Amino acid sequence: MKSLTELVRPNIQRLTPYSCARDEFRGRKASVFLDANENPYNAPLNRYPDPLQEQLKQELAQAKGVPAEYMFLGNGSDEAIDLVYRVFCEPGKDNVVAIAPTYGMYEVCANINDVEYRSVMLDKNFQLDASRLLSATDEHTKVIWLCSPNNPTGNCLQRSEVERVLREFPGIVVIDEAYSDFSHERPFRADLPLYPNLIVLNTMSKAWASAAIRLGMAFASPDIIGLMNKVKYPYNVNLLTQQKASDMLRQKGKLHEWLTTILNERTHLMPAVAELPLALQVYPTDANFFLVRVADADRLYHYLVERGIVVRNRNRVALCQGCLRITVGTPQENCELLAALRQYKA
Ligand code: PMP
Q1: Could you give the CA distance from residue 209 to residue 190 in angstroms, rounded to a whole number?
Q2: Cα–Cα dist 307/82, whole Å
Q3: Among 150, 219, 222, 235, which is disulfide-ready with 200 (CB 3.0 to 4.6 Å)?
């Protein structure tokens, strides 16, 4: 791996980050807070939240098995995705390489940050070929984007190929594990000590059933986390979100209950869809959604919308022509979907 100093943007390396009032008094005991121009009334929301969310990180450390100093928290993992560009990629000069198809925000954030985005197509089984991916890199490639289980394909990328990328690419490798709670594969966040160039993304938006609170995580070496903290907004995760996330983490039983129900539903829903005459192919998945290929995806999509059922039309995504992406819902929602699909006349 190149040194972090070689990888980070020079202006970020030189940056003196904003020092907020809550950073300066850190670690000292006080009872009278006259340092941040807050209104003294309406506690606790009158106070700025902890800029580094230390208590929540301790709780997440327990839940995720990742030490707090290896953790960045943001306004959804989308914030972490954008920060990776702002920390490492020089606009108009550097590039990133990503698998395709994959989650759309890696490309959108590249475009926002004026960074060249190079896509390398997965194979027809939606698998990664490390050699092809690595051959798309050059001396200006700062980041490789991987997503496993991948969105929209649903499958985990083959571990040996991912490990080859981690070993052989000298820059940053991001593995987005937004859906790893639905998979039986060992998550890559467990391998952080082995790979100093690895950033793993997680989110409360999927298995933890908290998309509305906007809490995303990046796990990486303390040096990488330090760079992300340097660039983030001072109070990027609000107090209500920090508190709500804590509440959720205390309901671990709920998480297991939801996971069991969703995975059980997935086991029944997928073969039931596959049996329908409209289904040309149902793809295997490790996530809480799956792809189904049909003869006319646009027509089926609109048919379902007319019945009040919204799925994701992936017909115009490379390698996903003819595909709808279906999220596994509650038993009742899945029944409604199946009933509507059974009435569809191709
Ligand atoms: N990564 C992947 C792979 C996703 O599919 C999504 C959302 N669909 C995100 C990240 C964004 O997650 P968040 O809600 O944490 O911003």
Answers
A1: 22
A2: 37
A3: 219
Tokens, residue 62: 């327990």
Residue 171 φ/ψ, nearest 5 degrees: -105, -155
Structure-token pair, residue 17: 């980050």
Single-letter residue type at 218: A
Pocket test for ligand 1, best of 60, 73, 77 (most atoms within 8 A of CB): 77
Whole-number Å distance between alpha carbons of 54 and 67: 11
Q: Beta strand pairing status for 323-327 and 289-294?
A: antiparallel
DSSP state of 140: T
Report which residue type is found at 188: F
Task: Give the SS3 label for residue 211.
Answer: helix
Give the Cα separation of 131 and 141 in Å (integer): 15
Distance from residue 148's CA to the centre of ligand 1 (Å)? 12
Q: How many helices (H) and strands (E) does the chain have?
A: 13, 11
Render pLDDT for 60-89 as a digit per residue (tens, 0 to 9).
Answer: 999 999 999 999 999 999 999 999 999 999
Please give the number of the atom of ligand 1 that sits closest to the Cα of 204: 15
Residue 160 CB partners (closer than 8 Å, separation 6+): none
Q: Distance, CA 152 to ligand 1 centroid (Å)?
A: 11
What is the best residue among 203, 286, 312 to mutate for testing ligand 1's pocket, by most ligand atoms within 8 Å of CB? 203
Question: Counting atoms of ligand 1 from 1, which one is nearest the CA of 147?
Answer: 3
166 pLDDT band, cuts 50/70/90, is: very high
